[in-house]
Design brief:
The protein is mainly alpha-helical. The chain has 13 helices and 2 strands. It starts with a helix and ends in a 5-residue tail after the last helix.
C-alpha cells in the first residue's frame, strides 16, 4: 500500500469534528466546560455536606451544652421550654403530628395520583395528557401560602361545620398537603407507567386479557417499585412542608386524640417559635434539635427511595 493511500485511510479513521480547531481554542473551550461542570458538581456536594454538618452541630448543642436528655426530648409529651421554673421539652406531639400529616397525605394523594397516571398513560393517552399535564404543572407552580389560604378559607370552615372541632385539625392538614404532593406522585407515576415495555402489554393482550386485567395484573405489578418511589417522594415533601400546614393545623402543643383535633408539626413549631427566641438560649437550641430530626428523616426518606429503586425489575 502506498504512502498516499495510508494517509487517506488514517484521515478516514479519525473522528469527524464539527468545529475545527484554531490555535487550540476547541481544547481550551472543552477544558473550560469540564472545569465548569466539575465546579457545579463539587459545589452541590460541598453545600449538602456543609448544611448537614452545620445543622448537626447546632442540633446537638441542646444535648451537649444544655444537658437535655435525648430520651425525654423525643418521648416527652409536654413542650414548655421557655417557662419559668422547671422547663419541659417533650417533642413527641410534634413528631407524631409530622408523621400523621405525612402518612395521611400519602393516603389521600397516592390513589388519586396513581389513578390519574393510569388515565394519562393507559386510558386516554392523547387528550388525557393534553388536559391533565397542564393541570399538574399548574398545581406544581402554586405557592404553598396559596394552598394554606384556600385551606383556611374553604376546608377549615367545612370541617368546623361538620364536626365537633374548630376546623383547624389534622384532617385539614391532610387535605391541603395531600393536594400539594399530588403533582409529584402523579408525574413520577406516569413516568413509571410509560417505562413499562410495550412487549409486556402486547403479551397480556395476546393471551386474551382485557385492558383492566392488563393494568391490574401486569402493568401495576411491573411498575410497583417506581410507584412506591413516587409515593415516598411525596411523603418526603409532606414531612418538610411548613407554611401551609401551619395555617390550617391549629398549632396546638397537646397530643391530638382524633383526626379532627388540633395538632402541630416539627416545621410549624420551628417557624412559629424561632423568631421569638434568643440565639444560643435553651429554647433556641431545642428548635435546632427539632430541625435536626427533620434532617435525619430526610436522609431516611432518601435511603428508602434508593432501596426501592434498587428493586426495580423493569
Amino acid at each position: 500500500m502506498s504512502n498516499s493511500s495510508q494517509t487517506t485511510a488514517s484521515k478516514a479513521a479519525q473522528p469527524h469534528r464539527l468545529i475545527k480547531s484554531k490555535n487550540g481554542s476547541v481544547k481550551r473551550n472543552e477544558l473550560r466546560g469540564k472545569i465548569l461542570v466539575y465546579f457545579c458538581a463539587i459545589l452541590i456536594i460541598v453545600a449538602t455536606l456543609a448544611i448537614t454538618l452545620f445543622l448537626t452541630l447546632k442540633g446537638l448543642q441542646s444535648f451537649v451544652l444544655n444537658d437535655v436528655n435525648v430520651i425525654k426530648f423525643i418521648t416527652g409529651m409536654v413542650w414548655s421550654p421557655s417557662g419559668e421554673g422547671d422547663f419541659t421539652y417533650g417533642a413527641f406531639p410534634f413528631i407524631f403530628g409530622s408523621f400523621a400529616i405525612t402518612f395521611l397525605a400519602a393516603l389521600f394523594a397516592a390513589p388519586l395520583g396513581i389513578g390519574s397516571a393510569i388515565f394519562m398513560t393507559e386510558i386516554a393517552k392523547k387528550w388525557g395528557q393534553k388536559v391533565l399535564q397542564p393541570v399538574i404543572e399548574i398545581l406544581v407552580g402554586i405557592p404553598s401560602v396559596v394552598y394554606g389560604l384556600i385551606g383556611l378559607t374553604v376546608i377549615v370552615p367545612i370541617i368546623r361545620n361538620h364536626s365537633s372541632g374548630v376546623g383547624f385539625s389534622l384532617l385539614a392538614g391532610m387535605i391541603v398537603v395531600g393536594v400539594m404532593i399530588l403533582p409529584t406522585v402523579t408525574s413520577i407515576s406516569a413516568d413509571a407507567l410509560k417505562s413499562i415495555p410495550s412487549d409486556i402489554k402486547d403479551a397480556s393482550y395476546g393471551l386474551g386479557a382485557t385492558r383492566w386485567q392488563t393494568i391490574y395484573k401486569v402493568i401495576l405489578p411491573a411498575a410497583l417499585p417506581s410507584l412506591a418511589t413516587a409515593v415516598v417522594l411525596g411523603m418526603a415533601r409532606a414531612f418538610g412542608e411548613a407554611l401551609a400546614v401551619q395555617m390550617v393545623i391549629g398549632n396546638s402543643k397537646a397530643m391530638p386524640e382524633g383526626i379532627t383535633d388540633q395538632a402541630a408539626t416539627l416545621t410549624s413549631i420551628i417557624t412559629l417559635s424561632m423568631g421569638h427566641t434568643t440565639y444560643g438560649s435553651v429554647h433556641n437550641n431545642l428548635l435546632w434539635s427539632l430541625g435536626l430530626i427533620l434532617l435525619v428523616m430526610s436522609y431516611v426518606f432518601i435511603i428508602i427511595i434508593r432501596l426501592i429503586s434498587s428493586r426495580r425489575k423493569v
